[in-house]
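Fig. S4 source data, part A: sequence.
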Amino acid sequence: MKNLQMYKRFSVPTELSGSISDIVDVSMLPKALARAVQEQWQMVPVSAHSRFASLTRSRLAAASCDPADIVGWMLKHPDCNWGVETGRASNLAILEVNHENGQESLCSLCGDRWEIWTDTLKFQDASATSFLFRYPTRRLRFLSSQFEGLRVHAGNLVLLPPSWFAAGSPLGYSDLNASVLGCPEWLLRPEESEGNSAKVIPFPEPRED
């Protein structure tokens, strides 16, 4: 397995008005963070390196998609993890699939259809794979306890690569050049008009005695 903590550096200078320097050197960022800058995701540095810690309590700043903020946080907190605000804030929904008990649930949820949507940007560690999708205009489906091992993130703070943990493997993208696709239909609620359509209940015809 690759060491997911090894990231190549590359230069993507970004112009910012009103800053001390006219150019923010994004080449200092790992590729995973540079992708977040490109997507304009609302990112936040967090101090937690445990899967069980509260990300909200561990955040070190207010969320931002400004490259200057992200570069500054990396320099100020070189050992921090990175969270993203899912939902409308970042136009991002994440489906997390637990490797141990989520495979069967996922198969049931997607109707055993594996075309296209699996090509979306995704990241993983030893315990789970997370699929990233554009936040939809329709409401997302509620996943009941029937779908064990699956979780949809759409409005909460979620750790993204290059985050790492004190115990366990770090988070890493499968293919950092993959596109973030739209949500598959099976992850959305049925059209509200379908659920609210009136049903006609026929009354029995009166019998003639």
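Fig. S4 source data, part B ends here. Helices lie at 31-39, 55-58, 67-76, 103-109, 192-196.
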